[in-house]
């Protein structure tokens, strides 16, 4: 999960773009096993309705493994790199 903690260094603008780019289900999977400070950083940078949806999805994702969560975290970091390098999220 150390790779995902790099998120804490991102600007509000990059976080906004990332949250707009990544599907809510992927955000929920990635945050399922993330540390509380990382979850809170995401929540603080997303609209209230998205935060509520992601929290609900996290509670429903009972079958997601820690390994799957980490895999999606890496995908999100790659999306962030695309945003920073290309100015857009490449899906």
List the helices and strands and how they pair.
Layout: H1 12-21, H2 24-32, H3 36-44, H4 48-60, H5 66-86
Helix pairs in contact: 1-5, 2-4, 2-5
Can you walk me through this structure?
There is one protein chain. With 91 residues, the chain is mainly alpha-helical. The protein has a single domain, classed as Flagellar motor switch protein FliG, alpha-alpha superhelical domain (Annexin V, domain 1), CATH 1.10.220.30. It is built from five helices and no strands. Helix 1 packs across helix 5 and helix 2 packs across helix 5 (66-86). It is globular and about 35 Å long. The two termini are 22 Å apart.
CATH superfamily: Flagellar motor switch protein FliG, alpha-alpha superhelical domain
Q: Helicity, in percent?
A: 55-70%
Order of helices and strands: HHHHH
Task: Categorize the overall geometry.
Answer: globular
**Domain count:** 1
Give the amount of beta strand, in percent. Answer: under 5%
Number of separate strands: 0
User: Could you describe the largest sheet, including whether it forms a barrel?
Assistant: none
Number of helices: 5
CATH class: Mainly Alpha
Q: Which structural class do the helices and strands define?
A: mainly alpha
Rg from Cα: 12 Å
What value does the average pLDDT take? 92
C-alpha end-to-end distance: 22 Å
Which architecture name does CATH use?
Orthogonal Bundle
CATH fold field value? Annexin V, domain 1
Poorly predicted regions are: none
């Amino acid at each position: 999960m150390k790779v995902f903690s790099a998120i804490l260094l991102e600007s509000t603008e990059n976080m906004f773009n990332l949250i707009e780019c990544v599907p809510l289900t992927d955000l929920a999977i990635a945050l399922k096993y993330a540390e509380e400070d990382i979850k809170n950083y995401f929540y603080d940078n997303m609209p209230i309705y998205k935060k509520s949806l992601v929290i609900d999805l996290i509670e429903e994702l009972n079958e997601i493994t820690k390994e799957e969560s980490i895999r999606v975290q890496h995908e999100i970091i790659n999306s962030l790199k695309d945003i920073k390098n290309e100015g857009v999220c490449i899906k």
